[in-house]
């Protein structure tokens, strides 16, 4: 495995710069630590003072994401919150991989999102400028109220509402330009020719004549979008009185991708109206919605594999001048089309749309002095639809001076789909609040139902050469399954649908005595239609305690300690992320045939065997730690240890028949540290330095039975290993001579020759066998960190955010010679073995055998990286100055996102998400581009 000093430089950077607190990083933030302790945070079905809580809740102000160039607000939280891991993709409209305190299941990994009280699968429909705050809930004390949805953590998003006061109009607008410098290192034409002919020589084949192919093409450059633009524009109108508060906002975003013709557009809208009917009765309604034109997504995969010796376009004078060139027929043409022809020939041939509408309403009233009843109603409707077209066009074949259909397609095709997702959620909440003497008590009881219905339809069809009208033209008017150009006999339609029902009873108690001793408890009983009949209800709970030591009399003489709270919590949470909707009622699939009365009939079998006692996974979790501030509240330090253990994993077991079972457990544990310093020098200058660091260690404690394991590509799920560990052979170098092979253990997985990789005999039996495979990498970092610095002087402000990970491995899944087709090479292959002593890491150029393509440490890369995440410089105009022009406020700023990343991964990016058991795999990826933007914010 290659050595690197990057890990050590990352560690030094962390020790030097410190760690982040509370996600508060805006230079305009002048809130004192005392105010932050007293601040009100969302806790699920209500609010509470942060000071009164026993758990770990981090509140991030909406200003942190409002002026950042990202379509999904979560993207801007990377590195902001201890314990929150976010892996971004730079592709427009993509979803981030979000994990809180590690991976603790073999099913879904993302936390649950709660937007203004309603559960959501993601928050891509939200305008970042509409967000008031985001609370990240991490510990059992704060999560158990969500029951079977809580195992992966929760993120509560509160959107802006109207405030009492004058009518105000706020305009936020920015425009940015994209670029990227990190890209895979590939061989050029001359290097490719050398390596390919060397490969042929190793196979005892004659050298290839490249006479017709004298191009030198960088296919990444050919298909990249140069200077992509991202626009974000938002306007908010709000008005409020003692009786009525209203807010309306509208947003527009347009974003170009890093590949040509990837264009994303989104409109967002939000309305809220809160009415105070009397001193004891309040009501309100609102809606949030979005409409998006989704991009026609492409990948850089073909541009990495296509041979560089071909020019993109035929420039030879003649009847075929200007056509796209085919790749050489013997050099990958059967597997890879001309990447530029793919992008240009298919531009704007897929039209996908996404619409979401979320109306909501509530009524709330107080009675008997200490009681409040609130009734909430939410509707979520999401519709995704699309239609597309596969064109037919010719490419030039240099070897025969002729043309042929691109990818061999002689018939145009059309596809069409529509998905509808409708969820109705309601909850009824009764809250009791009272203070008597030194006792402070809040008790909440609730009832909730969630009803979800999902339907989908997809289909495709082809044109017909016998159709009198000819082939379907490249015209969106005809891209329908019902088009007259479609051959009815080729239509293929698929549908799916399901319903999910959940009913819940829950309660919570918040108690403190003398403002010093706190106890929080939660209990939830969930029932679900997804589980088998007779086992549909399950119970989840938590209890937490805290002690504000700094209020004790013996602390009064320690004036440098302003605040110190010890806290801890324990709970039993659940995981509702599962691959099926009806575990008690499997669908039937064709499983053979039967003959009756001489006729052949299909036979049907259940999709899987039912397990009557199947239940949700249970997460037994605890944490303990402290919160503190010192030196007149300028220095704040928080720390916590967490331990999460998921038991009764909902596991799919393939067999005859397949079945699901509760079995196995996973553990994730680690530490979180946050530290921050904020100070003011004189009247005009203030500054801050904040940082955070999180350690994470995962382990599969056991599987559903001894000896059971499953392999998914390079990843393995096996007892004793980290979740998603990479599995393969350990490389001890390269065989230098035949004598070296004879003196080494005998291989049973292939016949190596000089120049091939040398695998380690792990079990010492004198042979290289599949039993010598072992853990060769861990995709979960040892720790992640982020830190921020900022300052403000007379309205001129500066901020910079940094982010990094340390100690993880990445599995390179491209450029390993994994196909017999002659793909392009990674530039590292230039240092291959060419004779004894020439290389002890890069094997010879030889694709005649699969021996070097076994998963091994040869494919493992150091995943540690360090990134300058965001830099912003701007100016807040004084109220006296802008008041002359009828303005309440005016801010101008320049923002640079993803300024620079230092890493040792050969690809566009060093970070890769994935599923619970298969992540951290480098498939070359998609650029996280640098975005330089200019913005303005004005309030009238």
Descriptive overview:
By secondary structure, the chain is mostly beta strands. The chain has a domain at 161-295 and 297-321 and 336-345. It is 7% helix and 47% strand. The chain contains 10 helices and 49 strands. The strands form 11 sheets. The chain has a 22-stranded antiparallel beta barrel. Strands 3-8-9-6-7 form a 5-stranded mixed beta sheet. A 4-stranded antiparallel beta sheet has the order 34-35-36-41, with no helix packed on it. A hairpin with a 3-residue loop joins strand 31 (665-681) and strand 32. Mean pLDDT is 91; it is low at 1-35.
List the helices and strands and how they pair.
Blueprint: H1 6-17, H2 33-38, E1 40-42, E2 47-49, E3 57-61, H3 63-66, E4 84-87, E5 97-100, E6 112-115, E7 118-120, E8 131-137, H4 140-143, E9 154-159, E10 165-179, H5 189-202, H6 219-223, E11 229-240, E12 244-256, E13 263-276, E14 281-294, H7 301-305, H8 339-345, E15 350-367, E16 371-390, E17 394-397, E18 402-405, E19 413-436, E20 439-462, E21 492-513, E22 517-528, E23 537-548, E24 561-575, E25 588-596, E26 599-606, E27 617-630, E28 635-647, E29 650-653, E30 659-662, E31 665-681, E32 685-695, E33 697-702, E34 709-712, E35 715-718, E36 725-728, E37 731-734, H9 738-742, E38 746-747, E39 757-759, E40 767-768, E41 774-777, E42 783-793, E43 796-806, E44 809-812, E45 860-862, E46 865-876, H10 879-883, E47 889-903, E48 921-922, E49 930-939
